[in-house]
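Lab notebook page, bench 4
Experiment: in silico fold of construct C2
Operator: M.H.
Input chain length: 224 residues
Purpose: comparison with the prior construct
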Amino acid sequence: MQINADFAAPVIVATDSLPWQASPMAGVDRRMLDRVGDEVARATSIVRYAPGSSFPGHVHAGGEEFIVLDGVFQDEHGDYPAGTYVRNPVGTAHVPGSAPGCTIFVKLWQFDPEDQAQFALDLGALPLAPDPARAGVASAILSARPDEEVRLEAWQPGASDTLAAPGGFELLVLEGSLAHEGGTLARHDWARFPEGAALPLAAGPEGARVWIKRGHLAAIRLPG
């Protein structure tokens, strides 16, 4: 299966327009944003767990990174409420599920095997520092490595910037909206732009909170 598998092409997805597709487990459905592979795949998805649903225990052979968008994600390590950002490196394992139900944004098979930092962050509790180079934008670094940088950014209403990065960039709108030349990125909309491409953006009247990853598209990791 290949979905938005040309990593040299810019992609913008209004995720609410995508159909939910059933996973192999009852009660777990997916909106596929990009994918290379079948059930073992490099994948970026929004995954919805119905109340009481779960996935079998598994090892993260390619690593896992996710944000809880609503509800409470659970595994044997604890409960992760909406607003939690989690990184599970290559070789970690868990039994995921949700008694109350939840929705997560998740990326699979995209970890550098040398990145062994496992952690969970409450995005709502992070202090954000104003960016001196961008008026109206404040941010916090979630993860920083030679091959990628991940940030949470808060844009005040009307704040503007043109996103571009060596190694490309990817973003998910967590709250609010960002206007671009072709329309608007609303809550939970997603974009991925390669190196050499740029995306001018301006925050809407409510501002925006945005998860942004930069630099990681220079090397595309695939299963096997």
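Observations: The longest strand covers residues 199-214. The chain has a mean pLDDT of 96.
Next step: discuss at group meeting.
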